[in-house]
Amino acid sequence: LTELGKDLDRLRTVTDRFSKIGSDPELTAADLSAFVAETMAYLQRRMPKAVSFEVALEEGARASFNPALFGWVLENLTKNAVDAMEGAGSLRVRLAGVAGQAVLDVEDTGKGMSRRVQRQVFDPGFSTKARGWGLGLSLVKRIVTEYHGGQIVILRSEEGLGTTFRVTLPLVSEDMG
């Protein structure tokens, strides 16, 4: 029953996300570490058991973010990683504060990407999947860069070995909200 309640909350969040795209979403200074921990715990329970999750978070990393939209970023990166691993492998999520930035790495042991795919992966309409519209990573990039003032890059990708995406957001101090 508890999990069904969480799923219902998640459906409300999805609805909220779509209402925010194209508008100017409200950002709140909050504990990004706690949010990432909660979101990844939710996602882990809904992913194949053959995917091992490792979540290493530096506590107290505060950033200004919109939970509905940043949750979408985490969900998309996680689902893409699981797809790239074909449902079995290792997903590692790390968050640390580095030089005034919250640095979030999402690393998988999937099939990796060629240089050509890496150059196009954030382009709207580009997909390596047979199904889908190729909008996931382009929306992720927009959410991170335009709405949150951050960056997203492919830190590393090697065919047959996996991919690491890096998301950076500015850290905020406790007295800023």
List keywords for this structure.
single chain; 177 residues; alpha+beta; five-stranded mixed beta sheet; two-stranded antiparallel sheet; 5 helices; 28% strand; globular
What features would you describe in this structure?
The protein has 177 residues and is an alpha+beta fold. Helix content is 38%, strand content 28%. The chain contains 5 helices and 7 strands, in the order αβαββαββααββ. Helix 2 (32-44) crosses helix 3 and helix 3 runs antiparallel to helix 5 (136-147). The termini are far apart.
Gyration radius, rounded: 16 Å
Low-pLDDT residue spans: none
Strand content: 25-35%
**Category by helix and strand content:** alpha+beta
Morphology: globular
Number of strands: 7
Which percent bin holds the helix content? 25-40%
Overall mean pLDDT stands at: 90
Query: How does the major sheet shape up?
Result: 5 strands, mixed
Distance between the termini: 34 Å
The H-and-E topology, N to C, reads as: HEHEEHEEHHEE
**Order of the strands making up the biggest sheet:** 2-4-5-7-6
Q: Helix segment count?
A: 5
